[in-house]
Amino acid sequence: xxxxxxxxxxxxxxxxxxxxxxxxxxxxxxxxxxxxxxxxxxxxxxxxxxxxxxxxxxxxxxxxxxxxxxxxxxxxxxxxxxxxxxxxxxxxxxxxxxxxxxxxxxxxxxxxxxxxxxxxxxxxxxxxxxxxxxxxxxxxxxxxxxxxxxxxxxxxxxxxxxxxx
Length: 165
Prior knowledge:
23% strand
């Protein structure tokens, strides 16, 4: 993933409610990694036609991943086993945010009854303003907006880490 891409995942809303009984503000990395979010999801709607209408299908390097978009641009991955969804991940190119892409991703999440798990593990109901707010607060956005400041912050962190050793 490129530094200028913002990453998020679709999580089935009902799977989140089964796990937590209400929709939490955040999900820990361990919970995200340990839970098989799509296992109990009713997969009545094939999401591929929706993504086909959003961005051009790409050649996959794996038989278990369907891909759309450009590797370092707007991107969609669906991980699957024998056609059964295991993960839907999205990357938004923040160098030139396509509001149409963001809008269509949000619409598809709504249609599939999914929540958006953003960087920082925030869980959002699908909403263009909410997603854009998270994107504009991200390191990816800071990098493309003010690269010198972003790199200076990284340097400061690296310097303080070497002093702690």
